[in-house]
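Handout, page 2. Input:
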Amino acid sequence: MSQITKIKNYVRPYIPRPIRQIVRGTRKGIVDFSLDTIDSWFGRCDEFTPPRRKTFVGFGDFKKTGDEFLRYFIELGDFKPHERVLDVGCGLGRMALALTKYLDARGGYEGFDIVPEGIVWCQEKIAAKYPHFHFQLFDVYNKMYNPQGKYQAAAHSFPYPDESFDFVFLTSVFTHMLPPDMQNYFAEIKRVLKRRGRCLITFFLLNEESLQLVEAKESVEDLRYSFDGYRVNDDQTPESVVAYDEKMIRELYAKHELQIKEPIYYGSWCGRKKFLSYQDLVISTRN
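Output:
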């Protein structure tokens, strides 16, 4: 961890939350607008690249991240071009855009998200050009991303029939969900997956190694608030970042008859020196 990050983590608790939010939002808006303008000048973006000011799906290069995960879907998840795939939490189409280069007309893509802005973007930019790609709003409550949501994620079903998909993936979804909501999503994943269907999910997993690094302040995520089976970095808006005990997650997989394909691919988020991606990747198969 850099010296600047250590200073920020030390100072943050002494600055009132509203002031932190205003400063962070203003700074991000100015930086995003400037970078978007520069990209436009130099032709580094196209019609499928959302402006940074719209992006609510995390940091990193939008297209490179999509291409990175497409490799994981194929190499780790054994995903084939003719299969049906569900993107839970599709955001602004970061993964969908990469899949347009791989998924053929025999297959099909369904994506949903809880943020209306993301669904409108995907419908206008991707679905309009690729008819076998479909996006819809899943209007469930999340204090961080959809505080006006109509339904509770812990009790709402995915809008698809049983055993509809060969492959389901969730990238940076359970890192923003609390246990009751996540547990319902696990049940729905099992329901919509075909027999022997595969699933890829990313997490922040708490185990002996990652907890040691978190306690040593080596982690990018400042998980200072502990609860039963999970930690968060903000007790007022816990969905901001959620990390789960690995033991608890393994038990959920077993409960819902999703067999983990070992090994788990641990990420760099906590300060690891050896990693595959930023978050931890878990591949599983429905029994």
